[in-house]
Amino acid sequence: MNNKLGVYICHCGGNISDYVDVAKVKQSVAAEEEVFLAKTTMFACSDSTQKEMIEDIVANELDGVVVASCSPKLHLLTFRAVAERAGLNKYNYVHANIREQASWAHSDDKSGATAKAINIVKAAIKKVRFAEPLTPIRIPTINSVAVVGGGLAGMRAALELSSLGTRVYLIEREHFVGGRVSQWDSLFTTGETGKELITRLYNELTEQKNITLLTGAEVTGFSGSIGDFSLKVRITPRYISGKCNPGELKKAIEVCPVGVADDFNFGLTVRKAIYHNFPGEYPQAPVVDLSNCNRCGACEKICGNIDFSQKEEVIEIRTGSILVATGFDPYTPADGEFGYRTCDNVVTLPQFKRLIDMGEKMLIFKGREIRNIAYIYCVGSRQAEGENKYCSRYCCTSTIYESITVKKKFGNIHNFHFTRGIRTYGKQEILYDESSRQGDIYLQSYEDDPPAVTGRNGKAVVTINDILTGKRELEVEADLVVLVTGMVPRNDNPVGSLFKLPKGRDRFFNEIHMKLRPVETVIDGITIAGACQGPKNIMESVNSALSAAVKSYSYVSKAEMELEPVVALIDRDLCSWCGACTSACPFEAIRKENESGKPVAAINNSVCKGCGMCLPVCPVNAIDLITYSDREIESMIDALA
Amino acid sequence: MGDSGKKNARILVFSTEKISDPAIDMAGLLKLHYPPTVFTIQVPCSSGVKPKWIMLAFEKGFDGVFIAADGSDCPYGESCTEKTGQIVTRTHEMMKVKSIEPARLRMAAICSVCSEAFVKQMKTFNEKLLKMQYA
To answer: What is the CATH number of the domain that holds A69?
Structure first.
């Protein structure tokens, strides 16, 4: 039994100490018989505190350590490593979570939070008394990563993983890869188009033999755990076989009687039920959208490659890690929000970007040439009343870039920006300067007094109490109002529920720690990248994609990985073999053995997963689970009571 | 039951490391408040909770025990819910022998993102236990 313990209680800046009296916690636990030293620390995870812990362990020959701080999901491994560096077995460390389960959960009750924190730390002290030196178990891993989402982030992550030598399954729900970026034209800072970026990535993807690209593919089933996940993927056919004759295909599309709002152009145009991809989308093969096809048969009579006999199929993929890069949805304003859908000349930023791309000599919307453009910022972001409190990060830069582009491309355009303060951070600030130099007008209002849009003589009139001119009421008669819409989590994203990925207050997928573990999730082996995690520009998405790729690679790159040495342990003196444990074990890890003529249960440690299902069924209580033994759990119950 | 006139009941939660504990952590992150007399002990799987641990919790003075079960999300297999249910049934029998009200042991599936469900369970269980206290 360990009886020379070190206990560290973290302030976590003020995250803990704002609500928990850490000095009182220290005072209470220092009185425990086994505690040799107890300290409070501003940041237990800081280098200096880690160094101090190592010095304490070595100098005082401590045989167990407790750190009371944040969730073990965040720093259990950090402090185990501290123990190891001090020459202590890492399993002689026990973590006490007094942030998520005390200070934050009970920020409304400081004395209650403090009392709870004291009990939590005391329970950890009781547990570490019984901790024993252990050796991790090693299991084989499947050297492959499934990347879910074939947009820019997913494609870039797939290429990185491929270059590291890992097999990659790139799974895209749509029939074309490229995601949102394929819809964008010229991009800041390089002037490259989204189509060009996607073309380059797609060409590289197709050259990699260890990447399997699945389009029209949706993950519908999920099981397993880190190192060996199993995915069921439903693949919807394109209903086209072989390569179509371009002339026949063109005619087949022309005769299709169905008209569907084209998502690629955010509903500005109409496409047919059989449709050809846009130049920036890949694979460059047409698709029959069966959900909208009325099966009139007109296209089949013209193009022999149309094949309605193709069937949906479900394939199974086994993979060591999963990287989720499912992207975002642009915010859709409510009807009437700044004149959206109630005023004729109001569009969103994504629609405006497509309008610029589609326009040739003149910028035309609904048959009328556009000269005066009003941009209303922060629509769907930084909401005072709504759920989206966050800044969408990309939209100020994107809007100003488009306002410069539209002027260069079409000339004779006047831009009026109705902002809540411009956030063109970093290098993007030069765009703001360029826009100001070209004569764009910037007006600004507070969140509680936004601009208003009304229709007048076929135009949209935007009025504002402009704080830059002492709250003067100003108005602009605009040919087009662009609502600068931000990013929201994808509305239709079932993989989040399937994988049970936690979401944050912003409803995007949540990482374990924003700063220290920014691409890992609490589901071991699953990483997140790109805008499914929160608003990001392209550069930031690629940064996170590369980070997630390397993290996923770290799970699968070795032939085996370390797992907790948590296995069942049989007390052979007590056991007289009844077989109940064998029946309860879902992994066939328990067999019958003879010990000096007495039949007893024996655990196969390489098969046992440490679930503990065998524990409660034993009629003589002959089974313990390592690190969850009776004496550990019962002493914790005693400390918490 | 413990002393009458308590502000909150003392509840022991057996939560699972991979499934319900992330939800309980996220409840904290989201500042979804519940009684501070709720304490958790983490186990790998809810079907590995021994009835004797639950009985000890009552003996030591906990008003209620809540098993935050993995349900269909259990990484160890589909039998989890059924097996956890059997543990509850067996423990209820043991509780009757000791004249402990079976309603003081509750089980519900709490998935890894079920923070709100967890908080709701804690609040309703707390209210139920407090009512029993005055019965």
So the answer is: 3.40.50
Say if residues B97 and B7 touch (Cβ distance below 8 Å).
Answer: no
The Cβ of residue B110 has, within 10 Å, a number of other Cβ atoms equal to 29
Nearest to A101 among B28, B37, B56 (CB): B28
pLDDT reading at A573 higher than 90: yes
Shortest Cα distance, chain B CAs vs residue A630, angstroms: 8
CA distances from A427 to A97, A221, B91, B127 (A): 40, 43, 64, 56
Question: Tokens at residue A36, please?
Answer: 């040799």
**pLDDT the model gives residue B134:** 53
Q: Is the pLDDT of residue B58 over 90?
A: yes
Sort out which chain B residues have CB atoms less than 8 A from A99's CB and list them: 28
- Asked if residue A367 and residue A444 are part of one domain, the reply reads yes
What's the rounded Cα separation, in Å, for the pair A311 and A197?
33
Residues A609, A586: Cα–Cα separation, whole Å: 9
CATH topology of domain B11-134: Rossmann fold (3.40.50)
Q: Is residue A104 within 8 Å of residue A190, measured between CB atoms?
A: no
Does residue A272 sit in the same domain as residue A412? no
CA distance B49 to chain A (A): 6
Name the residue in chain A with its Cα closest to that of B49: A616
Within a domain: residue A634? no
Which are the contacts of A489, defined by CB distance < 8 A and separation ≥ 6?
A328, A329, A503, A506, A507, A508, A509, A532
User: Whole-angstrom Cα distance, residue A42 to residue A11?
Assistant: 5
Buried b (16+ CB within 10 A) or exposed e, A346-367: bbbbbbbbbbbbebeeebebee
Q: Quote the DSSP letter at residue A640.
A: H
A607: pLDDT strictly greater than 80? no
pLDDT value of residue A280:
65
Range of the domain at A576: 567-625
Interface confidence: ipTM more than 0.85: yes
Find residue A312's DSSP bridge partners.
none
Residue A553 has pLDDT above 60, yes or no: yes
Nearest CA to A330 out of A433, A399, A243 is that of A399
Q: Residue ranges of the domains in chain B?
A: 11-134
Tell me what pLDDT residue B5 has: 56
Same domain, yes or no: A145 and A252: no
Give, in order, the Cα–Cα distances in Å from B135 to each of A58, B1, B4, B16, B78. Answer: 56, 10, 10, 32, 39
Give the 3-state secondary structure of residue A637. Answer: helix
Identify whether the C-beta of residue B37 lies closer than 8 Å to the C-beta of residue B10.
yes
